[in-house]
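Please describe what follows:
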Amino acid sequence: MTNFEDERIQIATTKKDAGIVYTLVSGFMMALADSVPGVSGGTIAFVMGFYDNFITALYDIFHGNRQEKKSALFYLTKLAAGWLIGMGLAVSVLAGLFTTGIYQVSSLFLGFVLASIPLIMIEEKEAVHEHCHWLFFTSLGAAVVVGLSVFNLSSYVQNLGLTFGTALYVMLAGFLAISAMVLPGISGSTLLMTFGLYVPVITALKEVINLNFTNLWLVVLLTAGILLGIAISLKVIKTALLNHRSSMVYAILGMMIGSLYAIVVGPTTLKVPQHVMGFADLNIWLFLTGAAIVYGLYLLKQYMSRKKAMATDGSDSEY
């Protein structure tokens, strides 16, 4: 075997290993974002530069041909592995943290969201700079998130029990949450908090991890709603991104701006309501940490893009 062939094999192997690690890290960070109100996993995907691959893979699972389904499954399996690790870690900590440290967590993710907005504008500069008349969609996106936060259904959720009405309510929440979660800007967790299901779901997940299946029904019904949401909403999202990317980017930015309001009023939706977050409640160090994390993810994305450019021969997946 020639030195040239050895070099090609080494480059391909390095790229494959880097791709797997990067995808695992991507899934892990998506889970941390998905687990808290205010930030969506879609935001992470956008900042780290794999959002289109993520949406396409989810779409292909339901609508692709055999080869597309196979490639999508391989990619999503890697992403899901990192996501499950991140979510397991998150629910083990957050179930208690949201009753004792809501303002600290909110400070962290206010920094996360605010830092994400300019980075997304940089990544989508063509869509943003060339179509300023789409500012209408920014206002529309912000209004949707603020409206959902104001229309607080959590006050109607009392002592959840398994009934037909509860089952429909939980499935609807899962359907809307996953439709939101795949969009950069609006958090599925924010919607769950709006529906009054965030803390019950986080608690139920923690119980299941500890092999307590008392509230497993809640997780199962939410999952059913999520799968239904994926099957129905992804085609609409993918088509909109392909044919109306400028308006979608502006709407996404609006939803991210609106999510700042959702984070601020988030403490009022807890089972034991807390006061609206004020400036005195802001932990500036955690706020800066949130901003630093999202900027670090952006730098990681830039680094991986350079690595990919250097290893152009071969690919372990079309994603």
Summary: The first helix runs from residue 3 to 34. Confidence is low (pLDDT under 50) at residues 1-18. Residues 3-310 form one domain.
